Amino acid sequence: MTSLSRPDARSHGRFNLEQQRKRAKELLKAVRAAEPAAQARFLQYVPPRESPLTLADAQFVIARECGFPSWPKLKAHTESLDMSRRLVTERGDRDLTTLHIRCGSDIEHSLRMAGFEGDFLEFSDPFCLGPLRDLPPEELMRLRAGFLAGLSGMAEGDILGRLVKSYKGLDELAHYARIVLWFEHDSYDQLLLAYLLHRLRQHLPSARIELVAVESIPGIERFIGIGQLAPDLLAWLWRQRRPVEAPLLDLGTRAWRALTADNPGPLEDLIATGTPALPMMGRALERHLRELPEASTGLGLTETLTLEIVRDHGPLPVGRAFALLMREYEPLPYLGDLMFWWLLQPLMSVSQPLLQISDTHQEWPHRQLALTGLGQDVLEGRRHWLDHACGERWVGGIRICPRASSC
Prior knowledge:
This is DUF1835 domain-containing protein. InterPro entries: DUF1835 (IPR014973). The structure is a single chain. This protein is an alpha/beta fold and 407 residues long. It folds into three domains: 81 residues, no CATH class; 118 residues, Dna Topoisomerase Vi A Subunit, Chain: A, domain 2 (3-Layer(aba) Sandwich), CATH 3.40.1360.10; 100 residues, Arc Repressor Mutant, subunit A (Orthogonal Bundle), CATH 1.10.10. Helices cover 49% and strands 11% of the residues. The strands form three sheets. It has a five-stranded mixed beta sheet with strand order 2-1-4-5-6, with helices on one face. Strands 3-10-11 form a three-stranded mixed beta sheet.
């Protein structure tokens, strides 16, 4: 029965308390009728006993299935969501002229649905891919546009136009009394956040600066990003925003300078501090460094995980490989599906590839990936990828060159 299944709210975070009460009553009825599936669910959380099971027991099981330690915790969270929604409806961001900044457009519509009315700026240059340099904005945009054009096959002028819109938006902050940064815990977000904090420190606006920084959501089974959340959750996060003060701005500058250094030393030193102004940034920077080549294979972590997925589950479609990466293999998911596709290209396009892909007219998510013999050897450390790779790769400011004399 649908009502007895694991709730969809485990992915988007919005729980309806009356629905959960109904599910508890249905579960209790099913277990009293000795339905095996209901009994199995109870035994996951309630030890066998002589006394009859009660509605409170069923509510406890439902709460645990929703990701909460108890029914009162689930109830308190849903009540907090309801209050947050009311407060945003009554006031929201209308007390101050507000700019919301996010590393994508994924929450813009949800912000409107939740009741926010401020302006929105998408700043989504994927710093987790390609070269980074501590350059003036105009030069950095040109560097990034050239790299992204080569990676994606898109026209450099088109990419530059999009970047200009984002970067120039940071020069127009005087229009606002409040600036709110919406970022989660992964390296895609945190690298961009470091740059934004650095820019804000360089040219401190008169506006109040606030941060919504998220690494987990109650009841979410695997939190990947703010974009997966229901609009009500954005209202709830709004109440948890924090002021951006000098220590956090300083961290942004130090992180940006470390990210753009041509060696890992500055990043390693910064990570060792635990980044107390924002601990999730340190964890994201540590994950970023794991894209450097591993000594025995020459592979970065994303490359390693991708080969492991294809070894364990392949041949399989590219889209399925990406889904497994995000849901099961990646310790700190940060890639979008198109970025994943771009990262596959160097593994497939050389004369001795690590991956083979089916030659069909299907869209790329449906094309089949298979591991080659060289891919198996590299994954097991018998051969080194940099002896076969072509073209340079960048991890922030660190350039990685192949060891092969020719491609």
